[in-house]
Design goal:
seven-stranded mixed beta sheet, 9 strands
């Protein structure tokens, strides 16, 4: 079976919080934590950080090297092209899409999505938990084949589809066989566990400050328990508007 490659899309540019991927969270760059957490997935064979060829993004490649994972330089805005060329160079059979503004990526959720896809890849092209979001924003995961990515790369012409990697796939359900995985705990999509503003970063630092040193890899349940015990933490970024979901399909379209 061809290898499963998690491609983390990351760049320093950000409209609301520039350089957030390298900002300090519990003594490490935020991107370090994402790489570390994906590294605890049991279903991922390889991790590659796909960044842009801009000079400012060389620091991202350096961090990837320090973490012992691959780095790939590609297009700044055509992220679909960046993903396709990265997957081609990595000889990936299955691609796991990871965005670098989500410091709480849960390896257990990654494994659920990837293993579901692998078990059903004969009759499915794409599996995610984002077509109808029920997980906290920031725990989104997508798994699909290299062949599906190649088709999207060849066929997608719209700028939105080129920027958001999988948009062409989930906007064409008549062409691709899609499956959505829903949260067994119910709809928690109102919870904001992504980083796009200073308030989001303050939330991330507060959670890591309480959980990281006690338990290096804490999971969704650990964060939910913390928010029950200390509801003031959840109020830190409560007023930040959720803008990561598209209005048409309720789909996470995180950039990078």
């Amino acid at each position: 079976m061809k290898k499963v490659v998690a491609i983390i899309q990351a760049r320093m540019g950000s409209t609301r919080l520039p350089g957030k991927v390298m900002m300090d969270v519990a003594g490490k760059p935020m991107l370090w934590h994402i790489i570390n957490r994906i590294g605890h997935s049991q279903s991922v064979d390889e991790i590659v950080v796909a960044t842009s060829a801009r000079a400012e993004d060389k620091v991202i490649a350096s961090l990837a090297e320090e973490c012992g994972v691959g780095a790939f330089f590609g297009s700044d805005l055509d992220v679909l092209d960046r993903y396709y060329r990265c997957a081609t160079e990595s000889r990936a059979g299955t691609i796991v899409r990871i965005t670098a503004d989500d410091p709480f990526k849960d390896p257990a959720v990654v494994d659920l999505i990837v293993r579901t896809y692998l078990d059903r890849r004969e009759d499915l092209d794409y599996v995610s938990n984002t077509l109808r979001p029920t997980y906290p924003e920031g725990l989104d995961v997508e798994a699909f084949s290299y062949q599906v990515l190649s088709s999207a790369w060849k066929e997608a012409n719209d700028a939105f589809d080129r920027e958001h990697v999988t948009a062409y796939i989930w906007r064409n359900p008549e062409e691709f066989r899609l499956l959505n995985i829903e949260n067994s705990l119910g709809d928690l999509s109102q919870l904001r566990w992504t980083v796009d503003t200073p308030e989001d970063m303050a939330f991330a630092r507060a959670v890591y400050g309480r959980l990281f040193h006690k338990k290096e890899i804490f999971l969704m349940g650990d964060i939910l328990n913390l928010l029950k015990e200390s509801p003031e933490i959840g109020r830190i970024n409560k007023k930040v508007k959720q803008r990561g979901w598209s209005a048409d399909l309720g789909k996470s379209v995180g950039g990078g």
